[in-house]
Design goal:
The chain is built from 18 helices and 22 strands. It is an alpha/beta fold. It has 2 domains: 304 residues, FAD/NAD(P)-binding domain (3-Layer(bba) Sandwich); 62 residues, no CATH class. The strands form 7 sheets. Strands 3-2-1-7-22 form a 5-stranded parallel β-sheet, covered by helices on one side. Strands 9-20-10-11-16 form a 5-stranded parallel β-sheet. The longest helix has 19 residues. The protein is globular and about 65 Å long. The C terminus is likely disordered.
């Protein structure tokens, strides 16, 4: 088939690679001049690094360079993805600097895609434009007076050069990872750096107690099991039953260590609640150097505050505090937006609250020929994108035995209701699956009748999940599809013996 993919980030590239290998003709559109999505040079802010270590952020069959640090920079990730596109011939499918302005149903599952270059017909459409595509910037009273006097307000991903902050009074709005990252970079050159934090969030140390890498806790199957999923399995039943006290102690002990390690009490930055509540906000790593900058006075955090209004050379907070301000960087999150889809498609895609109604975070039950990838933001976003690409390839081949459309809609409604409760609604309109990243991998692979051997999965309970252990799933699936071999039922969760042996040898 002729497949259009909108977006050349991790999900778009992974999808293009798999579909090319499955024999499809692929065209990847992106409005940026380079691949990478959030890692594009047009979107990188100073101080940007990955949140997951390089092994966990790698694509399964393309390891990152050995000389990369454990938490690569944004520029390194963009270079890595550029190399991935070249390695798997995805670069030949790219149409960069090309914005899709409209995508419309053409019947029989086909879609027309319109760009400034014209309109083309495709057999299927994959949306991979990213759930962090459009920054959400607050509208502040007095902005015109502020900018008329020479002030600048911008989104975090529109701030590219730290020199623009030199000798200026800077306010960074937000307390998520990007806000803390950019604050540290700015604080080295600015006259003052104030962080305006509406809500305190728990931050995980990269090394707990200065010794244990956080991935040994949070990036394991055990770490994920510390949070109750909607269907408890095996040891999870113990953790959320008889072992609940142990489970809570494990999580909250990390919070206690963080309070001491970062000096949160001394700086008045202890979040409300306990570390167990981290899932109800934004699970994030502490930016290297952030709390040290707070201790040194280079960064001042204005906790539980918002900007009420702007004026010439200043910003007034909601408690009446007036701060000098030349530059305001808004690291205030993103909107999940698909502006190229027509209104009738959006009505079937979104619920009344704007949640994306996607079965397995991939398939809209009521819109033929349309798929999504990357709408499963997680600690293992590349791995989740890869398994979703396999699912799409199988669906294109008619090799998936799925529930009926009403059953899929019901399953999606139940998933949204669960995530509303589990994350207190902080699931980015049903596009964020943290902290249930590997549960999603298991469910998607379950539909395909594929998985790595149980012994390897068991090792991931106490060691960080290794995406490299999944790298042979792509050739196994493609071999089946090429041979027109029907997929096993969804009840079969292991590979045949020869395939398991290959996976075991490579997974160690």
């Amino acid at each position: 088939m002729r497949i259009a993919i909108i977006g050349a980030g991790v999900a778009g590239l992974a999808t293009a690679k798999v579909l090319l290998q499955a024999g499809h003709r692929v065209t990847v559109f992106d409005k940026s001049p380079d691949v990478g999505g959030v890692w594009s040079r047009t979107r990188r802010y100073p101080g940007l690094t990955t949140q997951s270590p390089k092994a966990q952020y790698s694509l399964s069959d393309f390891p990152m360079p050995k000389d990369y640090p454990e938490w690569p920079t944004g520029a390194q990730i963009q270079s890595y993805l550029e190399a991935y596109a070249a390695e798997f011939a995805v670069d030949s499918t790219l149409r960069l600097n090309t914005e899709v302005t409209a995508a419309q149903v053409a019947g029989n599952g086909q879609w027309t895609v319109t760009t400034p270059d014209g309109t083309e017909l495709f057999d299927r459409l994959v949306v991979a434009n990213g759930v962090f595509c459009e920054p959400a910037v607050p509208e502040y009273p007095g902005l015109d007076a502020f900018t008329a006097a020479g002030g600048r307000l911008c989104a975090g991903n529109d701030f590219h050069d730290v020199e623009d902050a030199r000798d200026k009074h800077v306010l960074v709005v937000g307390y998520g990872k990007s806000a803390c990252d950019v604050s540290v970079a700015i604080s080295h050159v600015a006259a003052s750096t104030d962080v305006i934090a509406r809500q305190m969030l728990w931050k995980l140390p990269r090394k707990i107690g200065g010794l244990v890498n956080f991935k040994m806790l949070m990036l394991t199957r055990l770490g994920e099991a510390l949070f109750p999923y909607r269907r408890l399995r095996g040891f999870e039943k113990f953790l959320h039953g008889a072992g609940n006290r142990l489970r809570r102690g494990m999580l909250n002990s990390v919070g206690s260590v963080s309070v001491v390690q970062f000096g949160l009490r001394r700086h008045g930055l202890v979040p409300a609640g306990s570390m167990e509540d981290i899932v109800r906000g934004a699970i994030g790593l502490a930016t290297e150097g952030f709390f040290e900058a707070v201790a040194e006075g280079a960064v001042t955090v204005r906790r539980d505050r918002t900007i009420a209004r702007l004026c010439k050379g200043a910003a007034e907070l909601d408690d009446g505090t007036r701060l000098p301000a030349d530059l305001i960087v808004c690291a205030t999150g993103f909107r999940q937006d698909v502006p190229f889809l027509a209104e009738d498609a959006l009505r079937r895609l979104l619920d009344e609250r704007g949640n994306f109604l996607l079965y397995r975070q991939i398939l809209p039950a009521d819109i033929p020929g349309l798929y999504f990838n990357g709408y499963n933001s997680s600690f293992f976003s590349p791995l989740n994108a890869e398994v979703a690409a396999l699912w799409i390839a199988a669906h294109l081949a008619g090799a998936l035995d799925l529930p009926s459309a009403p059953e899929m809609r019901q399953a999606v409604a139940e998933q949204v209701a669960f995530m509303d409760t589990a994350t207190d609604g902080h699931h980015c309109h049903n596009t964020k699956i943290i902290p249930f990243s590997i549960h999603n991998v298991d469910e998607v692979l379950g539909d395909l009748g594929l998985n790595i051997k149980s012994r390897v999965r068991a090792s991931h309970w106490f060691n960080p999940v290794a995406p490299a252990a999944y790298r042979h799933l792509t050739p196994v699936l493609l071999e089946r599809l090429a041979g027109a071999e029907p997929l096993p039922s969804t009840a079969e969760l292991t590979l045949r013996a020869p395939e398991v042996e290959r996976l075991d040898a490579d997974a160690g």
